[in-house]
Write a structure and sequence with these properties.
Layout lengths: L1 E7 L7 H12 L5 E7 L4 H8 L4 E3 L5 H8 L3 E4 L5 H12 L3 E6 L6 H10 L2 E4 L2 H4 L9 E3 L6 H5 L4 H8 L6 E6 L8 H9 L6 E6 L5 H10 L6 E5 L4 H6 L3 E4 L9 H8 L4 E4 L15 E3 L3 H13 L1 H15 L4 H15 L1
Parallel strand pairs: 1-2, 1-4, 2-3, 4-5, 5-6, 6-7, 8-9, 8-11, 9-10, 11-12, 12-13
Helix pairs in contact: 3-4, 4-5, 9-13, 12-14
């Protein structure tokens, strides 16, 4: 049985990189692979792993060498971006002559450090072409693997009407959902301004996520006189239930997303998605076929939302196409490709 060590420096609450790793570990063939997880810090992600029977050790940078040596893995799979934790994980793995996979999930670039980590890595996995473009100097060892989704998890839902009552969304209101960390670059302010201009006022804006912009966005909703129709859910564990009660999902990022996992998750629930025309979203959505790609401004966001609200046939067509597109991102073919990488390294 081959032994794999997964190493991550998780966001708290977890981001798309952690959700993707969670999906992988939940589906990993435990008859063929023994594995362990090292995390830099404690938090929600460790609890999530515990819930599927995966024990994760908290390992400080200063202890990485001795802990990697002690576990003696065949492959080290690093899941965090260009951080000191990733650097030393890759350095000590190389020093100990372990095969190393570096999973890069961000567009942010630190060229010198990335180049060094890439030298320590036997394989680099990029979550999109947009991310792979950073590694032109390591093209032969870099592969693209879009983040996976688990259809079984996504399609098992709770009673949406009860959830709407719990949140306080009025019966008959159309729900526009946004699911991301509340950070400036995520573009929530443009979505709020677009929402305020909608002709249809029997609409609700459901905001799932937590972050530094929470207070600013609450003030903005008050300034725009939409507070009564904006619902801040914070960080939620059952995000698919909240997506399922949304009629439209919007990904309004003002800067390029490295991938856009929530886009695929929403499509898997048959939700029409509107995303800004940049980064990883362009690799997921075919504009006007299985979703809408728009410029990152309130006018284009408003027009796209109103198109879905007003044109039922278009809504149903896009919904059907979105579901079909999402099936191509299912976890099963993803795991086969990952096993192929592991076998090649071994």
């Amino acid at each position: 049985m081959k032994r794999i060590l997964y190493i991550d420096e998780p966001l708290n609450p977890p981001g798309g990189g952690q959700i993707s790793l969670f999906t992988v570990l939940k589906n990993l063939d435990r008859k063929e692979y023994e594995f362990k997880v090292f995390l830099k810090n404690d938090g929600v992600f460790r609890n999530m792993l515990s819930g599927i029977g995966v024990k994760a050790d908290i390992v400080k940078i200063s202890s990485l060498f001795i802990k990697i040596k002690e576990y003696d893995p065949d492959i080290v799979h690093i899941n965090s971006a260009c951080t000191r934790y990733s650097f030393f994980s890759a350095f000590w793995s190389k020093f100990l002559r372990k095969k190393t996979v570096w999973h890069n999930r961000v567009l942010d670039s630190s060229p010198t450090k990335e180049r060094i980590i890439s030298l320590f890595s036997d394989r680099i996995i990029a979550v999109s072409q947009a991310v792979k473009n950073k590694f032109g100097y390591a093209d032969k060892k870099t592969v693209i693997m879009h983040n996976p989704i688990d259809f079984n998890d996504i399609r098992s839902k709770s009673d949406g009407s009860l959830l709407k009552q719990k949140i306080g969304i009025r019966e008959g209101f159309k729900v526009i959902g946004v699911f991301s960390r509340l950070e400036k670059w995520k573009g929530h302010d443009s979505l709020f301004k677009a929402f305020a201009e909608l002709k249809n006022t029997q609409t609700a804006l459901l905001v799932c996520g937590f972050g530094a912009e929470m207070d600013n966005l609450k003030k903005l909703s008050s300034d725009l006189n939409i507070s009564e129709r904006v619902f801040f859910a914070g960080h939620v564990n059952n995000v698919y239930d909240y997506m399922d009660i949304s009629d439209i999902v919007v990904n309004p990022s003002a800067e390029p997303e490295p991938f856009g996992r929530t886009i695929i998750e929403a499509m898997a629930l048959g939700k029409p998605v509107i995303a800004t025309d940049m980064g990883g979203a362009k690799e997921i959505i075919n504009n006007a076929e299985d979703g809408f790609l728009v410029e990152p401004n309130e006018k284009d966001l408003k027009n796209a939302i109103e198109k879905f609200l007003e044109e039922k046939d278009l809504y149903l067509k896009i919904s059907k196409q979105a579901l079909a597109k999402a099936k191509g991102f299912d976890i099963n073919p993803y795991m086969n490709n990952l096993y192929k990488i592991y076998r090649e390294l071994l």
